[in-house]
Design goal:
Blueprint: H1 3-15, H2 19-32, H3 37-49, H4 53-66, H5 71-83, H6 87-100, H7 105-117, H8 121-134, H9 139-151, H10 155-168, H11 173-185, H12 189-202, H13 207-219, H14 223-236, H15 241-257, H16 266-280, H17 284-297, H18 302-314, H19 318-333, H20 345-360, H21 385-394, E1 399-402, H22 408-420, E2 426-427, E3 432-435, H23 444-456, H24 458-461, E4 466-474, E5 490-495, E6 510-513, H25 523-527, H26 530-540, E7 545-547, E8 554-558, E9 562-565, E10 579-585
Antiparallel strand pairs: 1-8, 2-3, 3-4, 4-10, 5-8, 5-10, 6-7, 6-9
Length: 593
């Protein structure tokens, strides 16, 4: 059989889908006739159809060595380069094709897609317009054009482009997905949910569709259903960091908004819903605007005051955030006693001691009380800066111990605030009490300390802003906080009890394990599942770093590290109670969000 007949046989087999047989003949032809351009090009095309990208690219490049400007081969090479992530090279090949065939639709469309992937959005819009001028029914071009327009902020045009795609094909899953993203960005959660519902129904194995649906449901404060959507997304894409992060943040938001006050006005409630969504997606300025609208309609809206404190703090307006938290505490608890008949014994004992302390200060009212916690000239001792920067730089994992953290005047001011304020409202079964910002653990001095920590120790906190803080107060002989990791980037934990309070100078502080959670652990596992954590640490052969308690000592460490309170043996008496302050900076990027 001559060369041409053999080539025709290979082409026929190729057309019938008998690819293995066609492949063998193309390769035989190339051995017998090394310069056979068509055999080389057709073999590359066959390999492309089998998704053997690297081999196909090698074969088409060999074909172009014989006929450098052949448009079909250039188009195939450009397509292969684009799928391999070599987009700038692909763009060059598509331009060479279009120089010969300006109206070749496949080259125009692939070029537009590459421009979109390169985030050259204005050029991509022009390129899609050129495709649609020649073929107005190109559905994917309408859908992808919408994506480029959305990136340019031309939302109305983007929406019109998605609608045009869906008019032609109501089952275009990606168009529904991107339409949902657009409506979500506008805060129109009902329409966003409608779009994501369609996308998930059409693409049930697309993690992004379920993640988007979960986000829209968060905007509607339908937390349980949102959680189910995110769990579905994680079943499809196990361990996907962005989805893990979103799920963890959802759990945090759900805890905050589980008890929304029913008496809030409808408008205030809607603005609160919008604010929750914006904060969830780190759109903090938008969240603050929505919260101001909510509070304008209902000034004592408790959930809005808490969220406003969170948002202002993360916007680096820490003192304003503290003021919002204090306003919440005074609104929620003002005029009410801090104790209840069913409080556990260790809280009752604390409250009796605190009442005696306040009476010595001349404060006899049994109702809620917050000390002023006023600012001082300098709160954080700057003498530690160089030593702490060195510790942070030289340890791995990062742990730094800071003695004499606060100036004397700041330490005494904080002690008074923590002893006098009746904000220790949350008893924990192990024997300690918690004061959260919304309970009143918020004052100008705490804001000053949080800000100066970033100023004095910039290499430790980096660009991370204060996100969360709290205080814990302990019984003299009961246990402390069990093993966990925190939901942040950097953990600052410091102790303010007087030096003589700790009866065992070798303990009473913190135990840190220099091991991080596995990447697929969620918030419950790394923060609550103590048995699971201990089993993991035993498997890793991890040994604890023990930092004994000292007055005015801070321990700064990577929040991914597991840690727990060391054994407590403190002297009796209210002034000797162990008190620690925790400040968390930044958002967790990893390990459950």
């Amino acid at each position: 059989m001559n060369i041409q007949a053999l080539f025709q046989q290979a082409v026929a087999l190729h057309g019938q889908g008998r690819l293995v047989e066609a492949d063998a003949i193309y390769r035989r032809l190339l051995i017998d006739t090394p310069g056979h351009f068509q055999a080389q090009y057709r073999l590359a095309l066959l390999l492309f159809q089998q998704q053997r990208t690297a081999e196909a690219l090698a074969q088409v490049s060999a074909a172009l060595a014989f006929r450098a400007d052949q448009p079909d081969a250039l188009l195939l090479k450009g397509t292969l380069l684009a799928s391999s992530g070599r987009r700038e090279e692909a763009l060059t090949d598509f331009d060479r094709v279009l120089a010969q065939k300006p109206d070749l639709l496949s080259a125009l469309f692939n070029r537009a897609l590459v421009l979109l992937k390169l985030e050259r959005h204005a050029e991509a819009v022009s390129a899609f317009d050129r495709v649609l001028a020649l073929a107005p029914d190109t559905i994917d071009a309408w859908a992808d054009r919408g994506v480029a327009l959305q990136h340019l902020g031309r939302m109305d045009e983007a929406l019109a482009s998605y609608e045009r795609a869906l008019e032609q094909n109501p089952n275009h899953g990606l168009a529904w997905l991107n339409r949902g993203i657009l409506y979500k960005s506008r805060g129109d959660f009902p329409k966003a949910r409608e779009s994501f519902d369609k996308a998930a129904a059409l693409m049930p194995r697309h993690a992004g569709a379920w993640r988007g649906r979960g986000s829209a449901l968060v905007g509607l404060l339908q937390f349980d259903e949102a959680l189910r959507s995110l769990d579905t997304a994680l079943e499809i894409a196990p361990g996907e960091p962005d989805i893990v992060q979103e799920r963890a943040t959802l759990l945090e938001a759900a805890r905050l908004f589980a008890d929304l006050p029913a008496e809030a006005s409808a408008a205030a409630e809607v603005w609160l819903h919008r604010a929750a969504f914006f904060q969830f997606h780190h759109r903090l300025e938008d969240a603050l605007d929505a919260l101001d609208q909510s509070l304008a309609g209902k000034p004592d809206h408790l959930a809005a005051l808490i969220l406003r404190g969170q948002v202002l703090t993360e916007l680096d307006r820490v003192e304003d955030g503290m003021a919002s938290y204090r306003r919440h505490a005074q609104t929620a608890y003002g005029g009410k006693p801090s104790r209840a008949p069913d409080d556990p014994p260790h809280k009752q004992r604390h409250d009796e001691e605190q009442r005696a302390y306040l009476a010595d200060l001349g404060i006899h009212d049994d109702a809620f009380y917050l000390d002023a916690g006023a600012r001082v000239a300098v709160a954080v001792n700057p003498a530690n800066a160089e030593n702490v920067a060195r510790q942070w730089r030289e340890t791995n994992p990062q742990i730094a111990v800071i003695d004499n953290l606060l100036t004397d005047v700041a330490l005494e001011g904080l002690r008074r605030f923590c002893r006098a304020s009746t904000m220790w409202r949350r008893p924990y079964r192990h024997g300690y009490l918690g004061a959260m910002p919304e309970f009143g653990f918020a004052c100008p001095l705490l804001a000053q300390i949080a800000d100066e920590l970033r100023t004095v120790f910039p290499s430790v906190t980096g660009d991370h802003r204060l996100r969360l803080l709290w205080g814990f107060k302990y019984d003299s002989g009961l246990s402390g906080i069990p093993m966990h990791a925190d939901q942040a980037a950097v953990n600052v934990n410091f102790w303010i009890a007087p030096e003589g309070a700790n009866r065992d100078p070798a303990s009473g502080g913190l135990m840190i394990w220099p091991v991080k959670p596995p990447p697929d652990w969620n918030f419950e596992r790394y923060n609550i599942d103590e048995a699971g954590i201990r089993a993991f640490l035993a498997q890793e052969g991890a040994e604890a770093v023990v930092i004994p308690h000292r007055a005015n000592r801070a321990v700064v460490f990577d929040s991914d590290l597991f840690h727990e309170t060391d054994r407590i043996d403190f002297a009796e008496g209210y002034l000797n109670r162990r008190i620690n302050v925790t400040m968390l900076y930044g958002r967790r990027r990893f390990h459950g969000g």
